Amino acid sequence: MSPRIRSVQSPSSEPCPNNLIDIPTPSGEIKEIRHQEGHILVCQGCCCGNTEKGFPAVPLQAWKSEWKARGIRKRVHLTIAGCLGPCPLANVVLVIFRGACVWLQAIHSPRQVQQIYDYVESMMSAGRYLPVPMNLEKFHFTRYDFDTASCEPTLSR
Ligand code: FES
After folding, report:
1. Does residue 104's CB lie within 6 angstroms of at least one atom of ligand 1?
2. At 126, phi and psi to the nearest 5?
3. Ligand 1 in contact with 49 (CB < 6 A)?
């Protein structure tokens, strides 16, 4: 059974506060979830934010308060996650927007958090993935062997 969408996701900047979808589960029940445009995963695992290991703290309050203040909760989910993998680059953040993955490193300050939310909101306004802005470019790194925005390889083999 395919999912039944109750409201159509806007391809534009229009907010879709009730973009709910019914998902059939393996047991045959129908569960309701919200379709979203993006997801921000803030690593707070074994290294990111671990001040006892010498890493800077994760600015958790900024992540949470900006997320609420900007009113994007129903369109972009925020998760404070366990280890995302590239520990030497702590503090790591993964932004997923409409399937494109943007990995960021050395994210320690509330100012950087604001810049990341500004970037996410610019993609929300555009209704599509946008390249990483200049103010975040030096924190951007490739994690996969393909570019999730273009589906092109990132490394020559
Ligand atoms: S603890 Fe953050 S990437 Fe491993």
Report:
1. no
2. -75, -20
3. no
